Amino acid sequence: MNFCSILRASLAETILDQIGDAVIYADARGTIMRWNHAAAARWHGFEAAMTNGVMKLQGRPTLTRATHKTGRKLYVEMTFALVERQAGGSERGAVAVARDVTERIEQQKSRARRESPEGA
Description:
Blueprint: H1 3-18, E1 22-27, E2 32-35, H2 46-52, E3 62-67, E4 73-84, E5 91-100, H3 102-115
Antiparallel strand pairs: 1-2, 1-5, 3-4, 4-5
């Protein structure tokens, strides 16, 4: 590995560790191989994706509930993708990116309550 490759790998690791979104990578067996500090694993559908080579949401974000390490309930928007060896090749694993969207969802719910007629 040359110096430029090492520098790029180091930069990628630094970026991964410092972003606020959770990033999780698991190999084809489901073993989590890499995660950053914001990660919280939720692997619904992982086995089916590894078997079929297709993920239900195909990269579209999905909203789900999660629990912070402090016990606080969160709304989390997650995106999943398969990681392939090469174009058209067999899957190497899957990656998930999760973002805490609790504040946005709570604001939307609050706004909806204010705008709805009383008693509705």
